[in-house]
Structure prediction request, 279 residues.
Amino acid sequence: MSIWFTEELHPYYRKGVRIKRILADEQTQYQHLQFVETEFFGNAMILDGIIQLTERDNMGYHEMIVHVPMLAVGQPKRVLIVGGGDGGSLQQVLRYSSVEEAVVCELDQRVVDLSREYFAASFGDPWVDPRTRLLVRDAFGYLEENPGQFDVIISDTTDPIGMAERLFSDEFYKLMVRALIPGGAAATQCEQPFFDTALIQEIHKSAKALTKNPAYYYANIPTYPGGGIGFMYVSDTPWENGLKTPYPPGVNNYINPEIHKAAFALPEFFRRELSGGSD
Ligand code: SPD
Prediction:
């Protein structure tokens, strides 16, 4: 069998990947969850018709969402991952020997269960690490209950649709910043400059009101709309601090010092939008 999977996250844009076979297809309590084997990108997870990650190109996403805040903070001890049930961010977080606890707040247990099966070749089994604590629950309540607890928070979410919309709100950013220790840093999945300009502007405004040194950065991921995705770095600590920090043990497949720096260089139209259109 060889068929095309076509994704239409935006009504004016489509992309497709050729798939070899469907590995799993189920309706969980929360969403339509599919795992497929693709022709080129290895195994992929699809939620409600949207590609979340593939084995071949997830490194740009997970290395950048994790290492930029982790390196900026230096010796992170307690880390919270919001979402992230596939284990890709967790695998990167656990590379740091300074990490004493990595809490993953994921709503859908089936995402974890099936990812352990279909991404084992890529991520190993980070869930058995004694530092990992999986909480199958909504992150909002957890953030509310845990002010001032985390050195780093990684918001590794789906797109702002349905239940996930709240994770892109000012309210969420306030709770997230409140859950950081002083000088802690967060990085969030923050969508695509071409397609989501207004949303990113709003989030940047919230981040600026809450912290001294927020910044938007970008990574290339061919299977995401527009070929990539951006992240909001949210912290009083400048992201540049991370440029001086050595990488944790293990192999990097995307980040290096040049990429780390260049990721914060924004195309002019978008830089202007984020600066409020004034300069
Ligand atoms: N438009 C796709 C955005 C996917 C973001 N979530 C990725 C989860 C990987 N851990």
Summary: The longest helix spans residues 58-73. The first strand starts at residue 3 and ends at 10.
